[in-house]
Design a protein that fits this description.
single chain; mainly alpha; two-stranded antiparallel sheet; 62% helix
Length: 175
Amino acid sequence: MKNQNSLNAITQRPASTVTATPADFMLELLALAVLVLCFAIPLISVNRLPDTIPAHFNLRGEADGYGSKRSILYLLPVVAVFYISLTILTRYPRIYNYAVEITAKNAQIQYRLAMRFMRVLKLEVLLTFTFLEYLIVVSAFDHHQALTALSFGPVVLVMLFASGGYYMNRSFKAK
């Protein structure tokens, strides 16, 4: 019954008439550039990498798991599916879950905020994957180079929570 009520609430929301702004186009362009870089790093590096590369790192940033040099390519399909999925999902803000009730009065501003957040989130996750691939390549050539895991994890978390918190704040203010 609850799922049916949720579906009814979504289908009763106003349609989206939000058009992309120059800032939205810039976020999409940046995400596309980072996606290209995310693919370029492993594709350019894979044939020059040692046969065995770090594949997992402990909290001190030291490699504690290894894999084939081809293992650096395993994330690429995941990244591609993520990018395509969020790009498509961004076009349908009517189906998102919102912390505030969507009404005819606030729908367009809530949709714009949510769509912008999806674009920012996509860019942040792509940056995270790209930086991780870069660190793997660097540490594969320099075994004494420890990942800065003690700062990498918290930086990613702060980045994601800061953008999520910013979105939620703006969403509640536009209620």
